[in-house]
Amino acid sequence: MYKNVIFDIDGTLIDTEGTGVHSLIRTVKELMHREMSYDEAYTYFGIPSVNVPKLLEYPEPEEFADLWERYFVELRYLMKIFPGISEMMPVLSEAGCKIGCVTSRTRQEFENDPVVQPLRAYFEVEICAEDSLRHKPDPEPALEYLKRSGAEASSTIYVGDTIFDCRCAKGAGTEFMLADWADRNPSGFPSHLRARNAEEMLKGILGQP
Asked: Are 8 and 105 in contact, with CB atoms under 8 Å apart?
């Protein structure tokens, strides 16, 4: 059993893939006048949103971010907490796990999202984009979490859905669990900790067979 659990938010606890990807596709089409495929847009899923305009070589990052946020809000109706997550949180808490999150969202994006609010009751520490100078895949966000929470890396597991989460966790010395809701079984991740649903996630954190 892990004493401390760090959760990523998007794609791990909340199904935001469709909202994030489709809002990015719309933004690129309007501002850059090109069609972006779903698969291409998905590669930016999990990267701090403030970094995406630079990666796309768009010269006006604030304009890009504002329009992306507007489309994201318009498509927020697609977002939902993954099945079983709401039921899993109190079980972890009652088992003695200290729970928190490390997200690439800005503090404003995080605190203004009504979907995530019911889960925040279980988070003892919340690390957002502004809380570290460097971001995933750099380990700094996870290290900042460990610093603020007082948790030991050796007793901590980081649950995320992207390679950026995995590298962040490993760089900070914590264990990593892949939240593979779509059952993609991607390569490059530790094979012994992969959860395809909330039941598998709970068992892996508690060390149950």
From this structure: no
At CA 33, angle to CA 32 and CA 37, rounded to 5?
A: 90
What pLDDT, on a 0 to 100 scale, did the predictor assign at position 209? 79
Looking up tokens 């395809």 gives 196
What kind and span of H or E run contains 17? helix 17-32
The Cα–Cα gap between 150 and 142 comes to 12
**Can you read off the two tokens belonging to residue 164?**
């950026």
CB atoms within 10 A of CB 111: 13
d(Cα 203, Cα 192) in Å, to the nearest integer?
12
Report how far residue 203's alpha carbon sits from residue 21's, in angstroms, rounded to the nearest whole number.
30
Per residue in 19-51, pLDDT (tens digit) is 999 999 999 999 999 999 999 999 898 777 888
- A 10 A CB-CB count for 15 gives 19
What span, in angstroms and rounded, lies between the C-alpha atoms of 95 and 150? 19
Cβ-based burial of 54 (10 A; exposed 0-12, middle 13-18, buried ≥19): exposed
| CA separation, residue 132 to residues 5, 8, 98, 107 (Å) | 19, 15, 21, 12
